[in-house]
Amino acid sequence: MEGIDLLWVAIATTLLFLMQAGFLCLETGMTRSKNNINVAIKNFCDFCVSALTFWFLGFGLMYGLSYQGWIGSDLFSLDFAKASPSLAVFFLFQVMLCATSVTILSGIVAERMKFGAYLFVAVIVSGFLYPIAGHWSWAGRLSEGSGWLAELGFVDFAGSTVVHSVGGWAGLALVLIVGPRLGRFDDGSGAHTITPSNMPTATLGALLLFIGWLGFNGGSTLVLDETVPSILINTVVGGCVGAISAGGLRYAVNQRLDVDQFINGALGGLVAVTANCFAVSTGSAALIGLVGGMIVVFFSQILETLKIDDAVGAIPVHLGAGIWGTLATGLYGDLETLGTGLSRLEQIGVQGLGVLVYGIWTFGVALLVFSAGNAVFRFRVTEEEEIAGLNIAELGIHHESELQASISTPVGTRP
User: Fold this and answer.
1) Rounded distance, CA 6 to CA 24, Å?
2) Half-sphere exposure of residue 353, counting CA atoms within 13 Å on the CB side?
């Protein structure tokens, strides 16, 4: 990288880091106040754990010298004091992508999972699941060899599948093991809404994620060239149309505005254009975002029907819209820009193969490893701890109102 390219990727990395704050605000706002501090510290610590694990192991598996297109074989635990500035900046950018994939899981299983068990999951995803999956598509961005999927012509520019669907598949496996929150489906009469604690904070989180996405997609060029402005515009258009389509669809069905669908629709639109923002027209980006937002709504209904409790709607956003965005790359991407040499039909077929392969790998291995981990040390908190809230159960933190009630209660009447 030249100096201006280094600066651009460094700026994009900073924007991408802002997404961690966005996830934190989104998840704490969309969950209950009795768990909000616990949700926040999980988001904070999963970044720390993921960054260290990715440096120690994951970066080498993902970008090391390719062994037959399947796995990297060097670049483990690098000393960046001796590395080139280009490699150092590239590594930092990749750390942020890895952390994004991991933190998706936090919101899915919020309010019911042990802190230590969640960090175990973060290590597995950042050190094993994500980097091996990423090698298949992105190894050629750094190492001499290419991943086997990339060799076939699979294209995922910034990670609709590599980052988002991998996080969504792993989260789906995890939530099936952990189960729904108490009261969500308990009486057999359908899904019960658990009221979020602070939707303005959640909305702020969505805006921070939107800002971070400019670095996510724009920085994936790894150079500051003439394609960056159109990539940024396609990103914004996809996200905005996704918000309107999801919010409008839910309003048409329920005759009321649904704040979380506007939020998740925007995120779904952003996820959907992530794979293809460099190779589609502005009109196509709008269409991709439109369908991405609608998929979020339909996917949410499917999860409720199946009694799968995703606390913040991350599976519809990252898995549902991620699959669509990957397929849309084959449907709407300019073939010359994609540069694979495949016909339209062949490109669609390879994109579909990538969706299938990543689903089998990530969901299958995650389900196996997480089930084994759950058998050794139970992932879920006890019923009593869940009722009390994880702020109290795991952190020993009481809300001020609870402390005041305790202080004002006569000693003889306390339980």
Assistant:
1) 28
2) 16
